[in-house]
Amino acid sequence: MGLADKAKNAAEDAIGKAKEAVGNLADDDEMKAEGKKDQAASSVKDAGENVKDAFKK
C-alpha cells in the first residue's frame, strides 16, 4: 500500500469518527450513520490494499 493511500484512508477514517462524534453530541442519527459509513469505507479500502500488497510479494 502506498503512503498516499494510507494517508487518504486514515483521513477518511478520522473524518468518519469526527462525524460520528458530532452526531452523538447533536443527537443526529443521520450524521452518526454517515460517520460510520465513512469509517466502513475506509476499512474496506484498507483491506483491498492489503490484499493487493499480499499478491505483490
TrEMBL record:
Where in the numbering of this chain does the CsbD-like domain appear?
A: 5-57
Kindly provide the name given to this protein in its UniProt entry: CsbD family protein
Q: Name one Pfam family in it.
A: CsbD
Gene3D superfamilies with a match to the protein in the record: YjbJ (1.10.1470.10)
Family that this chain belongs to: Belongs to the UPF0337 (CsbD) family.
Q: Where is this region: Disordered?
A: 1-57
Which spans does this entry mark as compositional bias, Basic and acidic residues? Answer: 1-20, 46-57
Looking up InterPro entries in the UniProt record yields: CsbD (IPR008462), YjbJ_sf (IPR036629)
